[in-house]
Design brief:
Elements lengths: L2 H6 L1 H11 L15 E5 L3 H12 L8 E4 L12 E7 L5 H13 L3 E5 L2 H9 L4 E3 L10 H14 L5 H12 L1 H8 L5 H9 L2 E8 L4 H15 L4 E5 L19 E7 L6 H15 L3 E6 L6 H22 L8 H10 L1
Parallel strand pairs: 1-2, 1-3, 3-4, 4-5, 6-7, 6-8, 8-9
Helix pairs in contact: 2-6, 3-6, 7-12, 8-12, 9-12, 10-12
Length: 335
């Protein structure tokens, strides 16, 4: 499957996997009295945890922590719900966390296509929730995102009305694709604008921060280009001073601001003032937001748009977005 086909399938992934998991049955007794949630994963598997945490910030009473590590926090206990997510099932950091999680709690669930994570889960009688094979892990975000939400719903940590809202929001992506993500649309236009530039990406703390981080990762893996990422308001307290005219000289400089229309008014003021200040030293500021009837819909549109930007940026440079040769070489040398 080509990368553009995988990216295009994002809404289909969410809707199809939601239907696949209708019959998912998890023991309410075993997963009762959860006092914290730890989602362990790397890359695309971890970003789905970040997004779930973002989406549920006002809809869940249990704190969520996303781990990108070999170990688990000391504060976790027998009432911590551990969700181990690895698309391949062979991510060594996640497998390490699995071993530690099953030694501390019986409330453990795995999400994967198979691999060693499935094997270990079966050996420890840990429920394994399967997602479809055949995708690049970073392009399987829809599968992992809705799977996490459905798992939390099945054990009564997330209300079914919230899941319905996500499915309804997902359906808006088909029209959004036609309007903004074709080769003549906004995504391709942004890719042309930011190509051959020094690129900094900014999100809003606890609003679009993980969406902006996802764009950085997608440009790295799909477009094979390096960018920086930070959040506002924090960047106003340090990084704003790092922009200068002498370090980059005549290089094109682009700052991408990803925000939501309902962000704190002071955040919107900060973005406006900061972009004006950066323009004085020749920075081209691109402000990206979407419209939609709720926060979740706007976020899904931003994710979709950003993935397409990374694809068209690869096209601009005649790059095949699928291979990740350096990552594979690194894994080979580590094995």
């Amino acid at each position: 499957m080509k990368m553009n086909e995988m990216i295009k399938s994002f809404p289909d992934q969410i809707i199809d996997q939601f239907e696949n998991l209708n019959s998912l049955d998890l023991s309410l007794h075993k997963f009762s009295n959860v006092n914290s949630i730890v989602i362990a994963g790397m890359g695309g598997s971890a970003i789905s945890g970040d997004l779930v945490k973002l989406f549920l910030k006002n809809d869940i009473d249990v704190p969520i922590t996303v781990l990108r590590d070999y170990s688990i926090p000391n504060w976790t206990n027998e009432n911590t719900l551990f969700i181990l997510s690895s698309y391949s099932g062979n991510t060594e950091e996640t497998l390490s966390c699995f071993d530690l999680a099953v030694s501390k709690s019986r409330k453990v669930i795995s999400i994967s296509t198979g691999g060693n994570l499935e094997t270990e889960s079966l050996n420890h009688e840990v429920p394994i929730v399967k997602i479809p094979k055949g995708y690049q892990p970073r392009a399987a975000l829809g599968f992992s995102l809705i799977t996490l939400l459905c798992v939390l719903n099945k054990i009564n940590l997330v209300n079914s009305n919230f899941i319905d809202k996500i499915i309804d929001a997902t359906k808006s992506l088909y029209q959004y694709m036609d309007e903004f993500c074709t080769k003549e649309g906004l995504a391709a236009s942004i890719a042309k604008t930011i190509n051959n530039s020094i690129i900094a990406i900014y999100g809003v703390e606890n609003s679009t921060d993980h969406i902006a981080s996802r764009l950085r990762a997608q440009i790295a893996e799909n477009s094979k280009m390096l960018t920086s990422f930070n959040v506002i308001p924090e960047m106003n307290h340090n990084e704003i001073e790092g922009w200068n005219s002498f370090q980059f000289k005549n290089l094109n400089k682009v700052a991408i601001w990803i925000y939501d229309e309902e962000d704190n008014p002071r955040i919107l003021d900060r973005i406006k003032i900061t972009t004006n200040l950066l323009e004085k030293i020749g920075v081209n500021n691109l402000l990206i937001k979407t419209s939609g009837k709720n926060y979740e819909e706007r976020c899904l549109k931003l994710i979709y748009l950003n993935d397409w930007i990374s694809y068209y940026l690869a096209v601009e440079n005649n790059i095949d977005p699928i291979p990740v040769n350096r990552i594979m070489e690194l894994k080979s040398k580590l094995s």
